[in-house]
Write a structure and sequence with these properties.
One of its GO terms (biological process) is SRP-dependent cotranslational protein targeting to membrane, translocation. Keywords: Cytoplasm, Endoplasmic reticulum, GTP-binding, Hydrolase, Nucleotide-binding, Ribonucleoprotein, RNA-binding, Signal recognition particle. The protein is α/β, with parallel strands linked by helices and 302 residues long. 54% of the residues lie in helices and 13% in strands. The protein is built from 11 helices and 8 strands. It has helices spanning 3-19, 25-41, 46-69, 74-93, 120-133, 150-161, 174-187, 205-218, 234-245, 263-272, 293-301; strands at residues 108-113, 138-143, 165-166, 192-197, 222-228, 250-254, 276-280, 288-290. Strand 7 (276-280) and strand 8 (288-290) form a beta hairpin. The two termini are 17 Å apart. The structure holds guanosine-5'-diphosphate. Residues 114, 116-122, 199, 254-255, 257-258, 280-283, 287 line the site of guanosine-5'-diphosphate. Guanosine-5'-diphosphate (GDP) is lined by residues 114, 116-122, 199, 254-255, 257-258, 280-283, 287.
């Protein structure tokens, strides 16, 4: 079930509620059952789903008790239930922390981390294009010395996007490249410097050590975890492992245009209490969507 299917199912469940002539416990339970089944099928963590059910129920009960005292009608009940569901879905994707926002006129260093193949290099270029289009002088640094061809890939992407880049074919120390690249762009008064780092096939201590060393060398204003939505439930464990060693302040979820169910990435937000800032929705340079919890849930519900 892809994210669009989840939306359609949630929408359908809420429609059932709109059509019900009476909103009683049976109707609310049926709605919650369908909602939870849809979320579970989309790979959202079981504990989160169960918490959502409890919270919606408690909120609805509280509001209905209050409405009853004030002589409430059925239409109000529907609104109450709909609002509780909406708010709790928003809470699922909103950890309540504000991500760092690059500002023009100062040097903002961003560092991307993640597993190999997650979409780091692609996403770094997309991000660079995003900031450059907003009038910020943006540069890319390739500190991925692990994957053969990583620098060529970044160079190709950057050239296509007309973004200045820094890297080396001979230097094998990613920390040295990251430091030199950031220093160069800093001296040239770049507003945004994006450092692309190595991945590995899975989360490994070597990778984490490297990330910590690069981070210490370039002191990023924001470290971004690039998370592939198509890995499903594994997204939660992976993001936890990264958070424990290479603390990141934002998440970008990639490959949401494919067959990804998206629920794993949603669970990663709760597990790491870290906000999603963008969604990757394709292989092209402009396939990057800004993420905000409320509009995302509104769009999901259709
Ligand atoms: P890295 O190893 O983490 O640097 O990953 P890459 O940037 O090389 O991306 C791995 C593959 O995923 C490439 O084929 C990208 O074109 C593809 N990719 C990255 N982001 C997206 C996305 O949002 N949607 C789709 N469909 N493909 C993506």
């Amino acid at each position: 079930m892809v994210l669009a299917d989840l939306g359609a199912r949630l929408h359908g469940a809420l429609n059932q509620l709109s059509r019900a002539s009476v909103v009683d416990d049976r109707v609310i339970d049926a709605l919650l059952k369908e909602l939870c089944a849809a979320l579970l099928e989309a790979d959202v963590n079981v504990k989160l789903v169960s918490q959502l059910r409890t919270k919606v129920k408690a909120k609805v009960k509280k509001s209905l008790d209050e409405a009853e005292k004030a002589g409430g009608r059925e239409a109000n009940k529907k609104n109450v239930v709909q609002k509780a569901v909406f708010d709790e879905l928003v809470a699922l994707v909103d950890p309540g922390t504000e991500p760092y926002k690059p500002v023009k006129g100062k040097t903002n260093v961003l560092m991307a981390v993640g597993i190999q193949g997650a979409g780091k290099t692609t996403t770094c270029t997309k991000l660079a294009v995003h900031y450059a289009r907003r009038g910020m002088k943006t540069g890319l640094v390739c500190a991925d010395t692990f994957r053969a061809g990583a620098f060529d890939q970044l160079k190709q992407n950057a050239t296509k996007a007309k973004i200045p880049f820094y890297g080396s074919y001979t230097e094998t120390d990613p920390v040295a490249i990251a430091s030199l690249g950031v220093e160069k762009f800093r001296k040239e008064r770049f507003d945004v410097i994006i450092v692309d780092t190595s991945g590995r096939h899975k989360q490994e201590s070597e990778l984490f050590e490297e990330m910590v060393a690069i981070s210490l060398a370039v002191s990023p204003d924001m470290t971004i975890m690039v998370l592939d939505a198509s890995i499903g439930q594994a997204a939660e464990g992976q993001s936890r492992a990264f958070k424990d060693s290479a603390d990141f302040g934002a998440i970008i979820v990639t490959k949401l245009d494919g067959h990804a169910k998206g629920g794993g990435a949603i669970s990663a937000v709760a597990a790491t209490k870290t906000p999603i800032i963008f969604l990757g929705t394709g292989e092209h340079l402009h396939d990057l969507e800004k993420f905000n919890p409320q509009p995302f849930v509104s769009k999901l519900l259709g």
